[in-house]
Design goal:
Helices cover 45% and strands 17% of the residues. A 3-stranded mixed β-sheet has the order 1-2-3. The chain has 4 helices and 3 strands. By secondary structure, it is α+β, with helices and mostly antiparallel strands.
Length: 120
């Protein structure tokens, strides 16, 4: 029986981000299958090349987006540099308060949308 992970890059990202940033929210989306037909991906056997990350962490407090992104890039340096590793990385980095405001706004908009439908 094999104990080798089917998602070693995702597992490494999750571990590194969790240990370094202690996120209150961490979502990792593997979008690699949507990009496997791109010319740059020809000959690549990796199924872990394109990711979207949503991270909320106190570690981002008082830092602008570029600094937050540099923090994540530094954590994932090995995964970004190795052959067949991460080719594309989309980041959404927020503080817990920014995340809560966004969630509250989305809840309010959904509630508003339901009210608009009911009034018609």
């Amino acid at each position: 029986m094999s104990t080798e992970s089917m998602t070693p890059v995702e597992d490494a990202m999750r571990t590194k981000i969790t240990q370094a940033l202690n996120p209150t929210k961490l979502e990792i989306y593997n979008d690699s299958s949507s990009h496997s037909h791109h010319k740059a991906m020809q000959g690549t056997v990796s199924t872990e090349t394109h990711f979207r990350l949503v991270i909320a962490s106190e570690a981002f407090r008082s830092k602008m987006q570029p600094a937050r992104h540099r923090m994540v890039y530094a954590l994932l340096k090995d995964e970004l540099e190795r052959a067949g590793g991460i080719h594309a990385l989309q980041l959404k980095t927020r503080t817990p308060e920014e995340e809560e405001r966004l969630m509250a706004q989305e809840r309010a908009e959904k509630g508003q949308h339901v009210a608009d439908v009911e009034n018609k």
